[in-house]
Amino acid sequence: MTQASCVRYISVPASEVLVGDDIRAFLSAEGVARVIEQADGEGGGVGGRTVRGEILQSDTEEIHLSVPWVRGAVQDASRTLSQRIIIRRNDILQMELRRTDYLKTGGLVALITAGVTVVVARSVGGNTGGGTLPGRGGRGDDNVTSGAHQPPP
What we know:
Elements: E1 7-12, E2 22-27, H1 29-38, E3 46-47, E4 50-58, E5 62-68, E6 82-88, E7 92-100, H2 102-125
Antiparallel strand pairs: 1-7, 2-4, 2-7, 3-4, 4-5, 5-6
């Protein structure tokens, strides 16, 4: 599924990330335990040994992230809940920046547009099988009894 995604991740040194960057960090086992502890056992945006979020604050010792947070049922699905977690820089094994892949996004938009065009063309075009209506030169002329529709002798 990663190949179909419209985003890509670029590996960068942790020292190069800026406030506002959307990142994915691979953590040590100790780092994962500290993040889960901060999140009251709810996960804190950790999936396996990675955490993804937006950098809120950064210094030489720590990175503060806003990460997705879900506890129980979400009352309003239009709002994303998040929480702040703090990650020690020495707990980060690898850091990646999340970037939009415009080539994949453009290809996906073109594919969807082509699909919608085909569906609309078929629904508007009706019967495009190439058949003819009775009385219009098709097989139905054999059954016409009115002289008005028969060709002159």
